[in-house]
């Protein structure tokens, strides 16, 4: 089974702190994604990565950056946390197979509260 | 811009009922559609994925259909159980200007009571 793990289930940080959210997958997937989920807004894509050291902006990249130094690990960075970044953060990965499935597998999520 | 809508937003049914969850999307040029389940405070579990060339997929008591031309998908749950209580999300990949991303609906929150 594919396993996607996230470093923390719950996190509380103060405004202005630098925050790192870590995601690791164990299936050698090329693609990795970071989403945030908010009531009434659904899941929105922040950043994604097709390969090591590659990254692409999603729909709401402002206030975030990412790092992918190794294939299995994709980090989301909040350079200076703000209260409007309080949310559930979900990481996902997928195997890119041309002409075949593009099923995304999700981690358990990190509930981040910025006070 | 691809938009995904799920109706109803919430549904409460007695155990044993068969039920249908609806998902619609505005741009029919999709690659595939995926149904997920999310328990409160948890991540997403993939239930079914339908490729654009397929009409339906089945897994146990779940059956998902896809009518790409009309921009609709349904998730049919047979003989519902309290353990089916969760939020169900659909997501599409693709669209005329969006070939790489999953676009999610806001979900249907299902409660099955004994």
How does this structure look, described?
Chain A has 115 residues and is mostly beta strands. Chain A is built from no helices and eleven strands. The radius of gyration of chain A is 14 Å and the shape is globular. The mean pLDDT of chain A is 90. Chain B has strands spanning 4-7, 10-14, 19-25, 30-38, 44-51, 56-59, 62-67, 72-77, 86-94, 102-104, 108-113. In chain B, strands 2, 4, 5, 9, 10 and 11 form a six-stranded mixed beta sheet that branches. In chain B, strands 1-3-8-7-6 form a five-stranded antiparallel beta sheet, with no helix packed on it. Chain B is globular, with a radius of gyration of 14 Å. In chain B, strand 7 and strand 8 (72-77) form a beta hairpin. The mean pLDDT of chain B is 92. With 114 residues, chain B is mainly β. In chain B, 0% of the residues lie in helices and 59% in strands. The relative contact order of chain B is 0.35. The interface between A and B is medium-sized, with 25 and 22 residues.
List keywords for this structure.
heterodimer; A: 4-stranded antiparallel β-sheet; 11 strands; 0% helix; 52% strand; globular; B: 114 residues; 5-stranded antiparallel β-sheet
**What value does the Rg of chain B take, in angstroms?**
14 Å
Low-pLDDT ranges of chain B: none
Pair of chains with the largest interface and how many residues each contributes? A-B, 25 and 22 residues
Most strands sheet of chain A: 7 strands, mixed
Quaternary structure type? heterodimer
The secondary structure category of chain B is mainly beta
Shape of chain B: globular
SSE order of chain B: EEEEEEEEEEE
What is this structure, in a nutshell?
Chain A is mainly β and about 120 residues long.
């Amino acid at each position: 089974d594919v396993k996607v793990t996230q470093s923390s289930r719950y996190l509380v940080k103060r405004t202005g702190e630098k925050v790192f959210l870590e995601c690791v997958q164990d299936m050698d997937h090329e693609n990795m994604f970071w989403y945030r989920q908010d009531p009434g807004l659904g899941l929105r894509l922040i950043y994604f990565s097709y390969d090591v050291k590659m990254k692409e902006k999603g729909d709401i990249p402002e206030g975030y950056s990412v790092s992918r130094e190794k294939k299995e690990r994709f980090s989301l960075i909040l350079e200076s946390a703000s209260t409007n970044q309080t949310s559930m953060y979900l990481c996902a990965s997928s195997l890119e197979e041309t002409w075949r499935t593009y099923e995304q597998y999700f981690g358990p999520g990190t509930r981040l509260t910025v006070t | 811009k691809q938009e995904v809508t799920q109706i109803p937003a919430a549904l409460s049914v007695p155990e044993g009922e068969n039920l249908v969850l609806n998902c619609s999307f505005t741009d029919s040029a999709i690659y595939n559609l995926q149904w997920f389940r999310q328990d409160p405070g948890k991540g997403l579990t993939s239930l079914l994925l339908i490729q654009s060339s397929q009409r339906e997929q089945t897994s146990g008591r779940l059956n998902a259909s896809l009518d790409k031309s009309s921009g609709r998908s349904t998730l049919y749950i047979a003989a519902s159980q309290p353990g089916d209580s969760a939020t169900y999300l659909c997501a599409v990949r693709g669209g005329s200007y969006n070939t790489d991303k999953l676009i999610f609906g806001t979900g249907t929150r299902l409660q099955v009571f004994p």
